[in-house]
Amino acid sequence: MLSMKGKYGLKALCHLAGLPPGRMAQSIEISEKYGISKKFLDAILGDLRHSGFVHARKGRGGGYCLARSPDTIMVGQVMRVLDGPLAPIHCASRTAYDRCRDCPDENACVVRLTMLEVREAIADVLDNKSLTAMRQMVDDERDDIAEALLTS
Fold it and tell me: What is residue 62's predicted lDDT score, i.e. its pLDDT?
């Protein structure tokens, strides 16, 4: 399940992805726009900075910006940094695998096999969706609404 940390981190990154090249955003600007506690957002942005997703600059004109193109930042990468493994249970995880103690044969466990499918489906979406694609979804929806209003 997506945590608030993951949700807010994605919102902040999408905000930064929408900035003109060379512009930085201060955390207070992002926190006010999305209703996120500034203290919590600063911690999230710190994690994103340490993971190489954002750059930070202090002082006048400082703030945050993306460390690389939003086309190359995949949602799955961000989610793993902020929320950990994508798998719903440890025995279905690729990065944090832990064998279940109550399962005598994990290759015949219907729960594990189903959760492996779930994990693959989640990873397929998140590992193939960039920040640019996330922002485009909103732009496409706005275009559809505007077109519907014009034709009605």
Answer: 85
